[in-house]
Amino acid sequence: MLQHRMCVLITALIAASAGSSPSAAQTKKVAIGYASASDFLPAFIGKEKGCFERRDLDVTLTRIPIVSNIPPALVAGSLQIGMSTATVLLQASTAGSISTSLPAPPVC
């Protein structure tokens, strides 16, 4: 299960960086916002083991103590990836402040 989550996270990071195709010498900065939950443990393991650096991703993990602040941070561009509760994302989507679309899960 942990490996599947790591694969999903890495794929999401690569998809987020696909907008601009950096050269091999250029790293893409990606800010990930997380709430205090064990769901982001794979991101910490990936950072510690160098998974992101091997893919030319400069990942910053930022703790967001109030979950409802994650959607506005995504819209403002201060985060590229963030996870929140379904309720908070639905409220933000209903308010029109965020578009909720999920990529297909990767095959690892």
CATH topology: Rossmann fold
The fraction of residues assigned to DSSP E strands is 5-15%
Overall pLDDT = 74
Order of helices and strands: HEHEHEH
Q: Compute the number of structural domains.
A: 1
Shape: globular
What distance lies between the first and last C-alpha atoms, to the nearest angstrom? 12 Å
Query: Class by helix and strand content?
Result: alpha/beta
Helicity range? 25-40%
Spatial strand order of the main sheet: 2-1-3
Rg from alpha-carbon coordinates: 14 Å
**Strand segment count:** 3
Report what the structure shows:
The chain has helices spanning 2-16, 41-49, 70-76, 86-94, and strands at residues 28-34, 57-63, 81-82. With 108 residues, the protein is of the alpha/beta class. Helix 1 crosses helix 2 (41-49). The protein has a 3-stranded parallel β-sheet, with helices on both faces. It has one domain: Rossmann fold. Strand 1, helix 2 (41-49) and strand 2 form a beta-alpha-beta unit. The mean pLDDT is 74. The protein is built from 4 helices and 3 strands, in the order αβαβαβα. Helix content is 37%, strand content 15%.
Essential attributes:
alpha/beta, Rossmann fold, three-stranded parallel sheet, 4 helices, 37% helix, 15% strand
Summarize the structure.
With 108 residues, the chain is an alpha/beta fold.
List strands and helices in order, with pairings.
Blueprint: H1 2-16, E1 28-34, H2 41-49, E2 57-63, H3 70-76, E3 81-82, H4 86-94
Parallel strand pairs: 1-2, 1-3
